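User: Please predict structures.

Assistant: First:
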Amino acid sequence: MIIGSCAFLQAQSCLQGIKFSNLTSRQGLSQNSVTCVLQDKKGLLWFGTTDGLNKFDGYSFTKYTSEPGNSQTLISNYVSCLYQDRAGHLWVGLYGGGINRMNPATGQITASYHHYKNKPGSLTGNKVKDIYEDKEGLIWVATYGGGVGFIHPVTQKFTRVRYRKAGIDVETNFSFCILNDQDKGLWVGSNVGLLYLDLKTKQFTGFYHINHPGFSQRMAESVKTGINQIVRDKKQRHILWLCTHNSGLVKFNTQTHKAEEWLMHDPANPLSVNSNSVWSFYQDSAGNSWVGSRKGFHWFNPKTQNFARFLHDAQNKQSITGNDIQQIFEDKAGTVWLCTYDGGISSFNPHLNNFDHYTAFGDKNSRWVNALCEDVQGNIYAGLGKGPHAMAIINRKKRHISLLKHDPANATTIASKIVSRLLPDVSGKGIWVGTIGQGLDYYDIASGEFTHYGYEPLDTTDLRSPHIGALYQDKAQPNILWVGTLGMGLYRFDIKNKVSKVYMKTLRYKGSKLSHNTIIDIAKDYKGNLWLATREGLNCFDPRKEVFTSYFYSFKNPKSLSNNYVSSLCVDAQGVLWVGTHQGLNRLDLRAFYKDGKASFDRYTTQSGLPNEVIHQIIEDNQKRLWVSTNQGLSCLNPETNQWKNYDANNGLQSNEFLAKSGVKTREGAILMGGINGFNLFYPDKVVHNTYKPQVLITDFQIFNQPVPVTKEGILTRPIWATDTVELSYKDKVISFEFAALNYILPEKNTYHIKLENFDADWRNLGTKRFETYTNLAPGTYVLKVKAANNDGVLSDKETRLVVKVRPPFWQTTTFYVLMVVLLIALVLGIVRWRTHNLKKQKKVLEHKVTERTKEIKMQAEELQTQTEEIKAQAEELRKINEQLLELDEFKQGVTGMIVHDLKNPLNTLMAYAKSPEIKQSARQMHHMVLNILDVQKMESAELNPHWDAVQLYEMIEEAIEQIQVLSSQKNLYIQRFRDIDYQVRVDRDLTTRVLVNLLTNAIKHAPLNSSIVIEVNQSADHQIKISITDEGEGVPPELQQTIFDKFFSLSNHHISNIKSTGLGLAFCKLALETQQQTIGVTNHPSKGAQFWFTLSLVDKVMLTDQLLTEQTQQKLLLSATDKQLLQPFVSDLQAIEICEIGRLKKLADGIPHEGSSEIQQWKDLLMEATFSMNQYLFDELVGMID
């Protein structure tokens, strides 16, 4: 049922998108009664109020007020008008205070003009209403009560111009406004009409009544229509628009000198001006005409002479702040400013009115738009979610709206109060309407009646869900309607037969199923498959095979869906599926998907440029860009560049919050987007951006976070924004700058770029931050450069510069350096003179001393000669003694070697034929001592090389124990050894056995009777074992443990023991082990006695096969058949001789001829080496080689 119809006003259509930005005393304005506004040459805005003057930089206000007794402040706080002359002076008209001329850069008052009685040349009135400068530089002033006159720029005196004509006295003292007439004259508005002043003659030449013709003569005389403002029409230059006190807006023709039209308030016509008291009129650069009255702000159509009203709404923060509009002004960027007498300042930019706003459909609560669509006639249908109305039909051609609601008594009305989805039927005859609570309806456009298709829970052939979430109808199958429900799955509804088939999560279809029963959107791709947006994943449904494939978010797969709550779908013209979720936008290339069967999603999130990740609707425009609605406004994506442009409520959107699937593209390319405060209509190709390139001002300068004041002799003598250079001390370590871009369109979105030359290598983007701090600048000259980009990212070409000079400390200045050089030169000269004087004085003293010392030196030289001869004699004597000692040592070594070699043969014979164990033991000891002496000599001269063998350790230990058995039994000693693991070691068997014998012999010597000697074996490291021999003797003092292994060292020599020794046994042990790359040491046992230990290397399998065998191979002797034949006669004699019979063996070996064979000579050398070292194993091996 259509329950309402209303005129669709201009202000509710194309101008509904205007969102006013407001400034009041809460934002720093000195007072909310604002009378006038001006933008100076720098771009700063100045606002006059009834309580002071305000300068505005887009972020903050600077206030100028009157201070009694201070001539550098305003005379009065009531500012009535503002004007800036060609020289840049700011003229401040005061209501009751005359005029102040101000330097806008410094804020200082440079001149004051006031009315003084009986003082020629002063103002004729102090209530100044308007100021203007003509081409000659005369400042014209209109006053209330003092008429019109001018201030001469040279004499600074005021001259009044009076009006007289033909004896008719129309003299008026009340002038309100001035308009330049192309530099020929001035139009002056007064309380009695319009006057014209000739600038050449400085005389009034015309006067025109503008009273409404309907006024009676008596009414005309009493009313005397005054003129508040005069504006020349930009298109029809001969037309003046006159804003009057009580006759509305008057159109005046300067050619006929007549008022042609009076546009006044008509209570019966809502399209008339809202008040006859019109204060201001303005035609902006976009071609709009604006009118400000005592009761509202108006958009004016000169052709139709209709007004669209904008009034203050206390419930709407984006309405104008007050209805009493004093002045309308447009700044350089096209922003329109409204000065209100009762609410502060309002502003908007008509150039950027990109989004039409439709709201409050018949009721202030009917703002919630859940769904939108367009029929074939271009009418817009809005599905509402709150308020008494369920649906609105907007006829944009006829400019009216029809509101529909549910009527329980009428079955042909809509079934529910809440509409969730709208879809035009492909036939063009009706609209499918999804509801919340009452299922599916069909609206017949021709009849205006509804048909209901649900819901019947017991009817299995009907739609059984009361809540509709998505609708889709295919043009190829117009009889089939796909219905997505909120909780009951997907329905395939046969419109003709009124039969439906349901697909639900609980039902399987050929092995597949729907991922969730709540379906929010349906889209069809070029393959004919349906894509379903659900609360739990994305589904691809093949309607021919009835197979579902589901896609979900995966933490492990960055190419999976970004979130499982899928809210919107769009298949674009390129065959790309766009998927909106509650955590970003996803892109799926369907052509690649159908080619390789893999769903690879590209994600777009806040990091990509989205303002919010909850996606409500996705629409592709005719330029192939995507428009995406979110919880934080509307965003446009260019898929080719992946660049985002974001819009919010400040750009004219219904609000920042949109609703799911509330959007559609019309046939003419417009896009509709619905939200919680109505919907927006816009044309993407006509969306205009701000192209104004803002100028930047440096607005504040601080040192150590404290503002620097403006003083006559301080760092700043003028405000920082009017200063070119600042000079600082090196002590000013922390300096800060604040700046403002003079773009007043969404200034919070202005961005800043900064560079400090000689400090910053390149420009830095500060974003929206508009201050920067520098610390510890080195002395020098810097240039601060700042430029800004406006709210749409348009960067200014011009940069603001400030030279910053940091003075060095005195000790780093040129003056200091010059002074230091002068002082240094003076110091050097002084030192030279002082030194020269001293040298002369010292020369005399030295000459005397030299004479005396020369005598002494001669005497000392004679003494030194004598001492030198004595030293030479002593040195010769020492040389001879040293030669004798060397000869003696050589003789000793020879004798020792001869004795040892001569002792070996008798000892070998003695060991061979002695039957007594004691005799054999003594001979063996003596033999070991002899061998020790020989081997020590060889090892010291590096002539002894070890013969490596792989030996079983305990076999070698037992052999050593056997050799000292007699000695141990004599003292009744028990030799204890631990044999847990037998080790195979790599050693020179003979040398190592003798080491063991020497250490055991040493232990026996120092062990008391009936005690024990302990032999322990431990594996100490990889491939290393440690053998320790411990006795129960007195031990070795710590201070002697490092020297006990020295040659000829004996404890008896240090009075520690009475046991005599040669001092060669331990020295031999140390050298023998070092020859094998092993170590030896001694410690005192924790209980008692000494513990001697040494290390050996374990046989490694790899070493045996690689290293040991290599050494054996290198030393292996190969005898030829001829060699063996020559040696064969000597085999029986060799086998008959004992190895200890060294003399016989040597004699026999000397008699073996080698016939020039190196192998036989090598064999003989090895045979003698085995004999001297008593190596029976090697001896037998060499003899066996002959066989």
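Second:
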Amino acid sequence: MKTFIRTSLYLALAAALGAGYCGATNAALLSLSQVPLFVTSGAKANVLLMFANSNSMDEDPTGLAVGSANPTSRSEIARTAARTLVTNYTGQINMGLMAFQQDNVAHAWLNQSPYDASYDPANYDPNWTGARDSATHKKYKIPNPTSPNASGACTTSGGTQVDCIYYNVNLPYYTSGPQGSTFCWGTGTGGSSYQSFPGNFTQYACYGSKTGTSDAAPGTSGAGYSSYYGTYNFGPTDSDYAQAIDDWGQRLASTDSGPTWFSNDSPGLGYLHIPIANLDTTQAGKLNVKLATEVVPTRSSSGSWNDNPTNISGGDTWNNPNAPLINAGLTPITGTFMTAKDYYNGASSNFGSNQGGPQAAPPNACGKDFAVFLTTGLPSVTASGGSVTYQTGQPYSANEVTNAVTAVGNLNSGSRPVKTYVIGFALPEFTNNYFVTNPPNPLDQMASAGGSSTAYYANNLATLNSTFSSIFSSIIAQSGAAAAVAMTSGSVVAGGKIYQGQFNSADWSGDMIAYNTNATTGAVTTTAWQAGSVLNGQNYDTGRQIITYKPSNATGIRFRWPANPSSPTSAELDTTQTSALTSNPSLNASNSADTGVNRLNYLRGQTGLSGFRPRLISVLGDVVNSAPAYVGPPSFDYPDNLESASYYSFRSTYASRTPMIYVGANDGMLHALDAGTGQEKLAFVPNGVYSNLAQLTSPNYSHRYYVDGSPTVVDTFYSSAWHTTLVAGLGGGGRSVYALDVTNPANFSEANAASLVKWEYTDSDLGYVYSQPSIIKLNTGAWAAVFSNGYNSTTGVAALYIVDIGTGALIKKLSTSVGSSTTPNALAAPTLVDTNADGTADTAYAGDLQGNVWKFDLCNANNQGVCASNTNGWSATKIFVAQDAGGNAQPITSGIEVTRQFSGDGYQLFFGTGKYLESSDISTTGSQTFYSVWDRYSSAFSVSTRSNLQQQTVSTTTVNNTIYRTSSSNAVNWDSPAGTGTQRGWYMDLPTSGERVVSDPALYSNRILFTTMIPNAAACSGGGTGWLMELDATTGAALGGPTFDVNGDGVVNTNDYVGTPGSYPSGVAKSSIPSAVRMQKNPGGPGGGSMNKWTSMSQKNATTNSSLENVLNSLAPIQSRSSWRQIFQ
């Protein structure tokens, strides 16, 4: 009687979604995709950058009128931050630029204008925090160029000591040309022509000179006024309204700042300078032109204004597509958001030719539309360009704020809602202080209406950069979270947690997330940790232990830069490795002596390195196809005397070792994470990825795979001792397979690299190994890693590699002799079986790209059934050919589930067909099938085909808005030597066009579970859809009992039928592509407990914001027969 040894669940279940993402079986080499195919249907987020460009941009953050071209101006700080934003997110989003529509923009002269000025040094109080119009307390001072004084408290730019002008507010003052310094005395009210301005003084008598320190009126003895210009009526600027200034004070001064642009009105709407488009280098160039330093007008020696060399002149300057934004005019927030809404919705009421239209609506972003609005103040004009009403002492118009909040809310509603982020940049001090005591802040109200809760506030370049980073990181996270970009690898259920790898295709950041689960129901409760965040907190130099493999002396070494790269020691990187790191693909900097060491430090996690690709969310790379492996204390059910040393003693020694998660990422590393905390304890950089590591740092990075294979971890015996060994391939990242000794996480350090890295296997005929290796004990007594030849091997012949686990030496390569360089072939993941219960693997099963199922004899038994102790006689035999009804080969790219045959000797094999390899596979529609085939272990049997199998069929029905499948229950007439039966299993053709199986099936309680996928290249499709299927393993028929919680009451029982009572579903539809099934048994419950079936989806659920899906079903046995395959993986 053959017996089976049950492995841990995480080992019995195989890799996650996508056995491949490689290439198709076309002539010559396969075209291996370097991007997950289900991402190709995604759409990047649309971001409309809405940039305030009113007159107040001429000021610095304190309000001093320095001119927009000055590096300290609000304008230049904001544009510098925005240009950095463009650089950082090139290739990741769609972006456009909108600003305020402007009118009557003219050449002007900018002046600094201290309000409520004083000339008396006794009034200087740099610590003043009180009223801005205090007569006796002035916080700031500037030189008075017309009052030389050798002992004066101020110094001119030329170094001359002068008296000072003291003030609390100094805002812009605009004139038609340079007029030098002016010193004005309020004479009354009159003549303010634009808006109601209730201050005491709007009419002033102005002079060209003011000397001395007296604050007395002109004409008074010692007042110091001279060079009378005349009496003038003044009107308020946008900056005045922003600070609720309705009175400039008795004394008003001004000094020259230089030429600028000016307008004292606004048409009231917005203007689209650059339509939203893919932020590639071309779009980035357009944005950087508009976000460049403002080009100020110039004057000739005769005093006339010159046309700018770049053909910028007055009047139409503001919307010149080849010139930077112009700062001029008021702040039309309401109308600008009305224009934005019309643009996003393809309307024209507020988006005509005068607002940059007509333009097509932004590209479809699968619901991920955003606006980021930066403003230096509150609305100061209506959407029609009319005046607004201010209340005395308030820095805003209550009515117009209400209108603006409504406009933002309208943008975030309707058929195309646009989430809006609001940034208050360098808001006037009075405005900030006012809303501290008089909440709410109108910008917070706008942000809330826009769906982003509260506004952001910044007052310098550092805080603005940080604000932009927070906002755009959030946008990137959201654009990957529920858009049609895929983000998840496989998951593993262990230790009361579910561990799931994820990725975000917007920036190719990754994460490994641990979810806590309910001990009774198995449902996810909370997030325990996120490795991406944890790793960000580990210092790249002192906080990480990173090792690599040095092929020249076949040993593990530290991943550190050599002291002398041209002559490294035996414990340092090879020159070929340092050369690979020093190459310069598309850097924003020329090659330098530091390129290699900087790149290595970047890979270790250092951020802020000039010229390299920014990583704004996490230094952890994307986790795509690498399914995580959970490793706790040793727990295999080996006999104690399986080897010369006691296995029980080994288990006892490491009974309390730290549970770990091992997962590969496309940042060039395998990561070893503490399963309890998420902290990285070790990382390994395989030598096989060095040739492409330099591309990871390129600002123009296009995704490719690095360490993308799924690790297998098993307790093994070699060198007279037990070890826990990890083996993995690189997937599409390279042509090697590596092994690590992970017995004791307490020993994980760079100093122990030589003992931790066992080997990295390469071979001229080894391709890209996407399948998960197996680890087994052979009949020769050796322990070995077993893996397929991989895609794009040199000969194209499907073969099985068997490599010594301790040394990495090749023990045997078993060729199928099927495949060639013109019709390349490759095996899927092998499944190993122990047929005689002696703890050694006797048989391996694997499918190939041409639809063949192979049985590999690793025993070569004699007449008494005893296996040989050598590899002589090991062989490969074809036992089945998968073909559709038309005789077309059906490729096998996923693993095979194996169990004892239900009614006789031999084994029953379960597998699906289909491939998801090249981009052309997205649109293939060939018929694919799920099979159950009997290998009877008899030479009398010929190669099987579907003609030897019983067919089952499916149909669909909808219950509570969920689509289910029901299947036929045709009996299998099992083959027998007596000839009473002819069938060797069953099959089910997948009914949907393009439907296929590319992930491993799972068997429990005589049920066979598998997932299917149906690719969809349409935008916002999540890459496709799929099904979770659950059938009677014996016949492929519908189960005789409840399978899914159809009625949604949280209990699986006889009420969960479809159609009529007693009719139970055999499958449930999935809205995006599901991975392989992970199972978690829950204790108790009616009928023997329940089982949570977890799948990782290619698209996060918009409601739950999770890509994990849990399907509860009953564990009540359908039939009494059940068993587990015996596998050593």
